[in-house]
Specification:
By secondary structure, the protein is an all-alpha fold. It has 14 helices and no strands. Helix 1 packs across helix 14 and helix 8 packs across helix 9. The longest helix is centred in the middle third of the chain and has 21 residues.
């Protein structure tokens, strides 16, 4: 496996130096900071990731204030009290994306969040308590118990909320392949995802860097898309 120090040098060279590369690194919250995030923001970031999947993200960004208004600023308690008829009424609400799959995902994820809040006290406690060296376990759990949170959607949700995580975009995959790890070009199998997790764990141990920074630096070492 290629040492991360080599990958870091490649990324710095491609991006114009250490300072320029640092500017590209995403914000990451500590577990203490993550615990201070309200349940409404977790639901909001779930919804944003889900809405941007398959849609132009600029359209969703422009419409986002209206979605916040329509969904009671993603207040989990208020949304949990809506009747099935009230959820169906969103199909006629011009403030939201009138796509039943998107609306139903918000509804179902309210239930998912209530489940975790009742067990952990807050959704933040659930997220902060899940170790970063088992991100693929968290991804699998969200896919099973949440709605439309599989694949990159769940990963982007974690990135949006500030949870330390890698995102398996094309350039990250290429960087892992260039480190002599045999994975598919579109790694979705448990086998390939575990290999990626193992690589990220090794690079994290080598550097002490957040997983989010490792994946961004890895991507920058080979491409320009991420």
């Amino acid at each position: 496996m290629k040492k991360f120090s080599i990958i870091l040098k490649q990324a710095e060279k491609r991006k114009g130096g250490k300072t320029e590369l640092q500017k590209l690194l995403p914000s990451v919250l500590s577990n203490k900071e993550l615990l201070e995030v309200g349940d409404d923001r977790f639901l909001a970031m779930m919804a944003k990731a889900i809405h941007q999947a398959g849609f132009n993200w600029k359209v969703i960004e422009k419409k986002w204030p209206q979605l916040e208004e329509a969904y009671f600023k993603f207040n989990v308690s208020k949304l949990g009290r809506l009747s099935p008829e009230q959820w169906e009424a969103y199909m006629k609400d011009v403030r939201v994306v009138r796509n039943w799959q998107k609306i139903k995902a918000v509804m179902d994820n309210v239930g998912f969040m209530h489940q975790e809040i009742s067990q952990h006290g807050s959704f933040a406690a659930f997220m902060a308590g899940w170790p970063e060296d088992d991100q693929i376990g968290l991804m699998s759990y969200m896919k099973k118990h949440g709605s439309r949170l599989g694949g990159q959607t769940g990963q982007w949700f974690m990135r949006y909320i500030g949870k330390d995580c890698f995102v398996v975009v094309k350039d990250v995959v290429l960087a892992v392949q260039n480190a002599d790890i045999d994975i598919a070009d579109n790694p979705t199998s448990k086998r390939d995802l575990k290999k990626i997790q193992d690589v990220m764990n090794e690079w994290h141990q080598q550097t002490g860097l957040p997983y989010a920074h490792i994946s961004r630096i890895a991507a920058c070492s080979v491409g320009i898309n991420y």
